[in-house]
């Protein structure tokens, strides 16, 4: 008689045989990834939550009472972290209540304590206006940007597209980020990264380059942490 474990193993093996080599490598990486396992155990929507958790633990960018914008929010893991850290649900009656708004082109499952704008293009001025209208007093303390374009396979083109997204977020910061505010922005290390870093340095008093442990070693992904916004 076949046990439940044997049936699961047979099913997994059969599914792997149907997949392309690239899909099989991705599946194997997911199954062996400790952050994927931890995300399931701690009920985070994806492993990227641990990138923000690590950054916040070291740099304290999320505080109770803060208003936060999560750009590229789907599936909502960063918003989960932000909701808890800024007390957006009011679960701590002794702390100020914060606010979290997330935006993405994709669908975002609802999350208690967060306002989501799914199927929304941040490049559109109307979407940026909706974000500003949703914010208490029309200002944010923190902007989180984990957006990335769909990979074309052409490195230079992908970096250019990501640079355009980052510059869009910088434009949003000029609209809604309050004095002394913080921007955390994902980028891919390469020819365009210096351009983004220079733009951030013009607008913020402190800019650091970070590589969280949860970022895969083979990934060129980096994060710019820009603090103390020079509100003009």
SSE diagram, text form:
Layout (H helix, E strand, L loop, with lengths): L3 H15 L2 H12 L1 H8 L7 H11 L7 E5 L5 H9 L13 E5 L10 E4 L7 H10 L5 E6 L9 H22 E12 L4 H11 E7 L10 E9 L3
Parallel strand pairs: 1-2, 1-4, 2-3, 4-5
Antiparallel strand pairs: 5-7, 6-7
Helix pairs in contact: 7-8
Q: Classify the fold: give the CATH topology of the largest domain.
A: Rossmann fold
Q: How would you state the average pLDDT, rounded?
A: 87
Going across the major beta sheet, what is the strand order? 3-2-1-4-5-7-6
Unreliable spans: 12-17, 22-29
Specify the helix fraction band. 40-55%
Which terms would index this structure?
alpha/beta; 7-stranded mixed β-sheet; globular; 42% helix; Rossmann fold; 21% strand; 2 domains; 232 residues
Structure, explained:
The chain has 232 residues and is of the alpha/beta class. It folds into 2 domains: 4-32, no CATH class; 45-229, Vaccinia Virus protein VP39 (Rossmann fold). The chain is built from 8 helices and 7 strands; from the N terminus they run ααααβαββαβαβαββ. The chain has helices at residues 4-18, 21-32, 34-41, 49-59, 77-85, 125-134, 155-176, 193-203; strands at 67-71, 99-103, 114-117, 140-145, 177-188, 204-210, 221-229. Strands 3-2-1-4-5-7-6 form a 7-stranded mixed sheet, sandwiched between helices. α7 links the parallel β4 (140-145) and β5.
């Amino acid at each position: 008689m076949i046990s439940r474990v044997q049936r699961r193993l047979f099913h997994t093996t059969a599914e792997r045989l149907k997949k392309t080599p690239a899909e099989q490598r991705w599946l194997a990486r997911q199954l062996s990834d400790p952050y994927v396992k931890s995300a399931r155990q701690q009920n985070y929507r994806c492993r990227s939550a641990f990138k923000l958790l690590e950054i916040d633990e070291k740099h304290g960018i999320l505080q109770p009472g803060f208003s936060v914008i999560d750009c590229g929010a789907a599936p909502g893991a960063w918003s989960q972290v932000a909701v808890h850290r800024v007390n957006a649900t009011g679960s701590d009656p002794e702390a100020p209540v914060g606010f979290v708004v997330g935006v993405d082109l994709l669908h975002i499952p609802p999350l208690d304590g967060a306002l989501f704008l799914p199927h929304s293009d941040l490049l559109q001025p109307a979407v940026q206006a909706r974000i500003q209208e949703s914010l208490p007093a029309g200002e944010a303390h923190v902007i989180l940007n984990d957006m990335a374009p769909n990979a074309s396979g052409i490195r230079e083109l992908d970096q250019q597209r990501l640079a355009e997204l980052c510059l869009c977020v910088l434009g949003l910061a000029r609209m809604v980020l309050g004095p002394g505010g913080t921007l955390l922005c994902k980028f891919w290390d390469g020819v365009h990264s210096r351009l983004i870093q220079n733009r951030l340095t013009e607008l913020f008093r402190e800019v650091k380059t970070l590589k969280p442990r949860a970022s895969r070693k083979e990934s060129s992904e980096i994060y710019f942490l820009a603090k103390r916004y020079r509100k003009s």
